[in-house]
Amino acid sequence: MNYRLALMIFLQFFTWGTWYGQITKYLAVRLDASGQQQGAVFATFSLAMLVAPFFVGFVSDRYFSAQRVLAVLALAGSALLFLLPGISDPAVFFGYMLVYCLTFTPTLALTTRIAMYHLAAPERQYPGVRIWGTVAWILVSNLIGYLHAGTSPVLFQIGGTASLLLGLFAWTLPDTPPATSAPVSWRHLAGVDAFALLSKPGYGLFFAASVLICLPLSFYYAMANPALTDGGLPNVESTMSLGQVSEAGFLLLLPLAYRKLGVKGTLVIALVAWTVRFLCFASGNVALFYPGILLHGICYDFFFVTGQLYTDRQAGPAIKTQAQSLLTFATYGVGMGLGSLLSGRMKDVFTAGGTTQWAYFWLVPAGVSAVILCFFLFTRFPESHE
């Protein structure tokens, strides 16, 4: 069973990894898009997160098996990815990308729900399944680097093919039935049941930190590729995949950290790593770019995967999908949406005569990360050692 769940995660992250880290550079080179336009297109992912996951979470919680919904969305997304290379207007590209993201973003909660449902001990077994998403990201990043496809239509053709395979494979997954057959209520449709988690001691603080840390996270995902390219880092796509290699290693260490340090301790380590990595990038020293990239494992695993496990524990059986959707809403929706727009704006602010002052650019997310770290350190977190 676990190998099938691992393949599901692999195909999902392979699709995601084809375009997510490269799209701003593609827009700048192919469509001559400004920083604000790049940030706006990158924000379509977050805009979709504000709507789609809750709706699809409601559907899969009430009416349809999660793997069926996943299959339909992946097939629709595949068709849209194949259409993107034919678009040359940034405004039109924005519209198509928004529609695509409306098909992709719900799959993040769906695959988590499917995996958690079929694993006997999610807190122990899920990292071993989730690691295949990291492996997929490493492979596709190196493939794109090898093909020099970072600014090529091949980018979306690879993603479309992977999404097609995911859609077909999803039909073969074991059944993950709706969790409840209770009558439809406006509370469930609006996600009110999931928002009730915010009243639990500790979860409200985690939710707030999740939103805030995604402001600097967007700076990394949206602008690291062009920034490190300008900074002289060789073979950027392949080199940045070292972050996913680090992610794989720290994912294996996560169960130990989660058990020994608790939720708060694990999250604090992640926040320290976020601050340090941005200072490495701000240095402008190519030698320090490498540790900045390698810190990605701690930054991502110790915050976001910990959050998925914490959310699964806090949520009741009837709202697990919506609870994961609440988490993705907070992080990839609200936080990264604002962060994407801010990163694009900051790029334009620090650009003059076609040259971007990346050192000043990276000090912005470094400062935000440091403030969040201080906020988290000095706030009581009563459930840090569940």
Automatic annotation (TrEMBL):
Membrane topology according to the record: Multi-pass membrane protein
Q: Which UniProt keywords apply?
A: Cell membrane, Membrane, Transmembrane, Transmembrane helix, Transport
Q: Which GO terms describe its molecular function?
A: cytidine transmembrane transporter activity; uridine transmembrane transporter activity
Kindly list the residue ranges recorded as spanning the membrane: 41-60, 69-87, 93-116, 128-148, 154-173, 203-221, 265-287, 293-311, 323-346, 358-378
Where in the cell?
A: Cell membrane
Gene3D superfamilies assigned to the protein according to its UniProt record, in alphabetical order:
MFS general substrate transporter like domains (1.20.1250.20)
CC terms in the record's Gene Ontology section: plasma membrane
Predominant place of localization: membrane
Pfam entry (one): Nuc_H_symport
Q: What is this protein called?
A: Nucleoside transporter
